């Protein structure tokens, strides 16, 4: 009896350790949700790929829902002529008043830059786009795309460099995603009606299938506080440190190509309140 109890506690311990680190294995953390065999998990669960052909795109979603934490994923985007394709990687809750935190990668013809499109929805309302070029070719290697989601802010990071901060501005009446747990979703689909140069460049189906790769998913809950494996300042402190603030300014100055907060034409009645309060 004693030994079966020990066996049971060992099992519990092992599964606790696995679920609290929640990293790596795609079989364990994600379901392939559409696109039949266009979505694949391989290398023993370490690698996932999505592909798109003329008939269909594909997608996956997390088995679990998350409420606050740091989520890292490495992506290698569709190489070559990826014009017309969109790789979306985002967090979302369900329902008409859903919350959402988006990364979308808009492809381009060979040699021309991808656009990284970001948006934050709170209680069903988005319209908070910021777009960026990247300072590297996202199709050559894996790069890390992260979201730090806390009650006080959302930070988007690329290779640990903050590119966008969306602060909680509930005190001035701006809804903030903080009551609805979200799942992680990703999909690769055809959006040649708008994605590349506003829909001017169409998908070249002779180059299909288009494939994007994923690895090294990692989730750290916000409650893990002083977790020693995550001594990254952007995560630990409530505000960005001086280095992160400098990097954020560098990205926003040289790589940001659209910011809803400066789009006066779009908001003739006045910019959204969170834009008036600070630069970000
Ligand atoms: C594609 O390349 C063109 C020309 O360099 C550029 O204007 C555009 O922003 C790029 N990205 C997308 C997704 O259209």
TrEMBL record:
Signal peptide from the UniProt entry: 1-24
Domain GH16: residue ranges: 20-214
Post-translational modification note: Contains at least one intrachain disulfide bond essential for its enzymatic activity.
GO cellular component, one term: apoplast
GO molecular function: hydrolase activity, hydrolyzing O-glycosyl compounds; xyloglucan:xyloglucosyl transferase activity
PROSITE patterns in UniProt: GH16_1, GH16_2
Gene Ontology biological-process annotations: cell wall biogenesis; cell wall organization; xyloglucan metabolic process
Subcellular location: Secreted, Cell wall; Secreted, Extracellular space, Apoplast
Family the entry assigns: Belongs to the glycosyl hydrolase 16 family.
Identification of the protein by name: Xyloglucan endotransglucosylase/hydrolase
The species this protein was found in: Rubroshorea leprosula
């Amino acid at each position: 009896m004693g030994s079966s109890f020990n066996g049971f506690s060992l099992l519990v311990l092992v599964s606790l350790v696995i679920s609290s680190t929640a990293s790596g294995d795609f079989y364990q953390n994600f379901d392939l949700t559409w696109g039949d065999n266009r979505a694949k998990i391989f290398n023993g669960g370490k690698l996932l790929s999505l592909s798109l052909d003329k008939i269909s795109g594909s997608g996956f979603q997390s088995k679990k829902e998350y409420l606050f934490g740091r989520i890292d994923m490495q992506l290698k985007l569709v190489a070559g002529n990826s014009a017309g394709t969109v790789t979306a990687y985002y967090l979302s809750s369900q329902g008409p008043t859903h919350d959402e935190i988006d990364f979308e990668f808009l492809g381009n013809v060979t040699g021309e830059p991808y656009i990284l499109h970001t948006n934050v929805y709170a209680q069903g309302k988005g319209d908070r786009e910021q777009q960026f070029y990247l300072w590297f070719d996202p199709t050559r290697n894996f790069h890390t795309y992260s979201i730090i989601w806390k009650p006080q802010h959302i930070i988007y990071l690329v290779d640990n460099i903050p590119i966008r901060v969306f602060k909680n501005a509930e005190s001035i009446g701006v809804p903030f995603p903080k009551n609805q747990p979200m799942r992680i979703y990703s999909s690769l689909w055809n959006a040649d009606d708008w994605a590349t140069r506003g829909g001017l460049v169409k998908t070249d189906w002779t180059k299909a299938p288009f494939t994007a790769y994923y690895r090294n998913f990692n989730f750290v809950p916000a409650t893990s506080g002083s977790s020693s494996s995550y001594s990254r300042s952007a995560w630990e402190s409530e505000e960005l440190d001086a280095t992160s603030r400098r990097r954020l300014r560098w990205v926003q100055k040289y790589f940001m190509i659209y910011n809803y907060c400066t789009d006066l034409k779009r908001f003739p009645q006045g910019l959204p309140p969170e834009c008036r309060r600070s630069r970000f």
